Amino acid sequence: MPRIALVTYDPRPEPSRDSDLPVLLRALTEAGAEAEAVHWDDEDADWASYDLAVIRSTWDYSWRAAEFTAWAERCAKATRLANPVGVVRWNADKRYLGDLAAAGVPVVPTRYLAPEDAGDGSGLPVDHEYVIKPTSGAGARYAARYTPDRHDTAVRHLARLHEEGLTAMVQPYVRSIDTGGERALQFFGGRLLHASRKQAVLAPGTAFDEDKVAHPGLEPWTPTPAERAVAERALAAVPEAPELLYARVDLVTGDDGEPLVMELELVEPNLFLFLHPESVPRVAEAILAAATG
Q1: Rounded to an integer, what distance in angstroms lies between the CA atom of residue 108 and that of residue 191?
Q2: N-to-C CA span, the chain
Q3: What is the pTM for the complete model shown?
Q4: Most buried of 21, 28, 251, 264 (most Cβ within 10 A)?
Q5: What three-state secondary structure class fits 85?
Q6: 133 beta partners
Q7: What residues contact 254, with CB distance under 8 A and at least 6 apart?
């Protein structure tokens, strides 16, 4: 009986926001595994006692990125970690988009402004709407969209990110998001599992430090051949071609009508199993195979 840790976050005093976790635990147990949900920062966790640790909903890690990657290093020395620690380290910082672009993957154009760079806003666009967000973040944390006439507010946003030691990324706001949304293609065990579409997350005028709904209007989606091809190109461009247990590729449509990679989620992507219950057996099967293979 393989022992499997589904790695999550400690939500206390609030209830967990991962509605898929109990479903997946039950599916693994029924399939013959001994599965447990374990907080990644639980100091008493014995990671060596598990055959496999699967990062699932460590949704507070972006606030503690250095601490989280240090945990991943320790965990990977004690047991098999999925995804591999090298992938976690690379994907935890969204500067990986530059690596994808260098590999020829179509991505949303991105400029990076580190704390040591000029913070006067001289690098911000003056002729189109744009987004500022941190390179380490999730759920639209510290993200906002701006028009050029809101330059002073955007500069204050940059200053706040830099004060916290965060590198900012600046991207043109992709207008098609307002009509076609974002598409998320979920892969598991090396195969396309399912796809979803969500509406725009960032509304005009929403402050960067306000809470946002991470996945508004989520619905099932059938990916186009072009979307699937771009997603597969992105996964093939991950450095050193690691074996990925899971992956989510978030896509938008560029001005030319072709898909662009918005994000490549290889650390703790929401699987949206509540929207795709037919995928639960396939996910459990792939996790069991990884634990016993």
Answers
A1: 24
A2: 13
A3: 0.94
A4: 251
A5: helix
A6: 169
A7: 106, 108, 174, 176, 260
